[in-house]
């Protein structure tokens, strides 16, 4: 039986035109979702290690950012590809 897919609300993620390039960030910060993904999924930090490293974010922020990533994977993957720091952390070579 097929279920209708509903749009998931992410209480701790926001995107605003003219703020941080319109990219999705953790609400109330300038911390991009792409950075959560890079640190946790590509560099192997646990969510707990990430919040210890960045005291201005909470564990629930990290989990919501990861959930947002899986709901918007193509968008965030493109954002990571366009961002040099995350590209390098994933092992991509610079094109310069």
Plain-language structure description:
By secondary structure, this protein is mainly α. It has one domain (13-82): Winged helix-like DNA-binding domain superfamily/Winged helix DNA-binding domain (Arc Repressor Mutant, subunit A). It is built from five helices and two strands. The protein has helices spanning 33-42, 47-53, 59-71, 73-82, 84-89; strands at 13-14, 25-26. The chain has a two-stranded antiparallel sheet with strand order 1-2. The model has no long low-confidence stretch (mean pLDDT 87).
Record the SSE blueprint:
Layout: E1 13-14, E2 25-26, H1 33-42, H2 47-53, H3 59-71, H4 73-82, H5 84-89
Shape: globular
Number of self-contained structural domains: 1
Strand order of the largest sheet: 1-2
Which H/E pattern describes the elements?
A: EEHHHHH
Keywords:
96 residues; mainly alpha; Arc Repressor Mutant, subunit A; two-stranded antiparallel sheet; 4% strand
In short:
The protein is mostly helical and 96 residues long.
